[in-house]
Amino acid sequence: MTLSDVARQKEPTAGSTKKYWIVNSEARVLFGEKGLLIRQGGVVTRSAGQAVSKFVNALLDGAENGMVSIDTGSVDAGKLAQLERLMDQLVEANLLIEAEDGERYDPVVVGLYQRAGGIVDRATIARRLATREVAVLGTGELADRLRESAGQAGLRVTGADAVESAYVTVVAGAHDDDDLLEEWNQRALAEERPRPWLAVLPFDGERATVGPWVVPGESACYQCYRLRRAAAFPDVAVSEELAGVTALRQKLDNSARYPGLNLVLAGMVTDRITEFAGLHEQMRQPLPGGLTTFEIDSTGITTEHHRVLRVPRCPVCSPAAGRGYPQVWFPRYDDEQGA
Ligand SMILES: [Zn+2]
Fold this sequence. Notes:
By secondary structure, the protein is of the alpha+beta class. Helices cover 35% and strands 21% of the residues.
């Protein structure tokens, strides 16, 4: 039996062991005159010989559920060493990733594994994604899209009744004065063990936002964001009032008017939350106070990243609020830009 036949073989023979490899879908296999090229980004690995090309072709053809397998029991003793060397080369060339015993292919887990440069094992990532709950609060189209998108990524999505056990919470407000955000902000700050949370706001005619990423006690809180946004309001007489206002409860869901933008917001939130749940301990968490804005104009959707800084003497999150002499804080638009 040739090695290509081995690669093609589906049914394991009696008493044999099957070995599995995950195919790195970020690597491209190219067949040239001089043999096989494996390309990932700017790195190309060359393997000479038509036989190798044929073997790899047969191997990838037989891929099932993102994995290839070989029944080593069906290989002649003389060819086994050659086969093992070849498979090692393909692992080294980054085309294949050796699978763990009993591993099942999960593309999201493999994606995070690759994102972390392989420093977190896939079993750990899978366990974290399966056990860390993501609470999504809010109603309306945008909140629905957030739940749907996070669920499709394999995250455990819960709601308002399970916030106690949530690893991270996403709060989709109807608009930036929504009580839901203010209430959650105070509750998160009062928690003994502060957990990060992410505010998401639909397009309000000016912009949509993902953030701030609030790390209670460490980053700007939601009230800090409101104070800074109000300070940026062009009419100074009104801007002082804006930070403390209460909004009328609006029944109309404005987010329903921008289905495409909602998907973009949901995608960005899913990406951030998935990385946080799967890799948090090994990778730095999203920037505390980090905020991304999305604006729509004739060229399409434009995004910008900002950092919301804490407001000294913020009435909600500053321990110094209401004590001593007030610090001079000049409301400036630049503050909001993170400058
Ligand atoms: Zn604050």
